[in-house]
Amino acid sequence: MRQGRPPTAAARARSDVVAPDAGPALSPQARALDAALPQTQCTRCGYADCHAYAVAMADAGEAINRCPPGGAEGVARLAALTGRAPLAIDPACGHEGPRTLAVIDEAWCIGCTLCIKACPVDCIIGASKRMHTVIDELCTGCELCVPACPVDCIAMVPVTGERTGWQAWSTAQADEARHRYAFHQLRVEREQRENNERLAAKAASKLADLPAHTQHTDPDVIERKRAVIEAALARARARREGQAP
């Protein structure tokens, strides 16, 4: 069963760092630690992704034993990079085990798309009200799709026999997962931005001729409605400007 716990108090100040590439400000050690993580993006460490956990270890002294997918070998790699003593995997974060693959029971799938939205590497394909399926070679075994499924039709099946940790996962697979996760984040951000732009354009269109777009006839009510829409547009504009590079 998936397990995980919140970040420790020492690292909460940096837990908002979730981007796959924080740019030049990212320390060399954080980059090295990120490269040593398996990139399953499972969140069992208590952070939003592998990148955020790497930053917390490098900059906030987070423990190096919070990554069950990396296993004991993963802890040894992190220990070598940080100069700390190796530790057993923190049981609060889960346990080392064989790599698993998400398998969807096609007979029970209702096509809700929630598993597609939950997958951090876009390895589930399907359409609304149509059966979904997992692209086996791209699945990281993160298990995030399991709790997202409302009909419990996803099972995690072990696929590596006795091999666990880095014996069940390769550097090439980690690199592929990292790239797919970065693309996933960019896609989600783009879709959110485009949706916000559509909503803003719709609001602006109504604002241009508000009396024609409301059932209210009282001028005071219409002006209050106008003020609400203008304030919402101003907040959205401020957010866009604040996020601009």
Detail the topology: elements first, then pairings.
Elements: H1 28-36, H2 50-60, H3 71-82, E1 100-104, H4 114-118, E2 124-125, E3 133-134, H5 145-148, E4 154-158, H6 171-208, H7 219-243
Helix pairs in contact: 1-2, 1-3, 6-7
| Through-space gap between termini | 40 Å
Mean pLDDT: 86
Beta fraction: 5-15%
Helix and strand content put the structural class at mainly alpha
Describe it.
The protein is mainly alpha-helical and 245 residues long. Strand 2 and strand 3 form a beta hairpin. It is built from 7 helices and 4 strands; from the N terminus they run H-H-H-E-H-E-E-H-E-H-H.
Summarize the structure.
The protein has 245 residues and is mainly α. The protein has helices at residues 28-36, 50-60, 71-82, 114-118, 145-148, 171-208, 219-243; strands at residues 100-104, 124-125, 133-134, 154-158. The longest helix is centred in the C-terminal third of the chain and has 38 residues, at 171-208.
Main features:
245 residues, mainly alpha, Alpha-Beta Plaits, 3 domains, two-stranded antiparallel sheet, globular
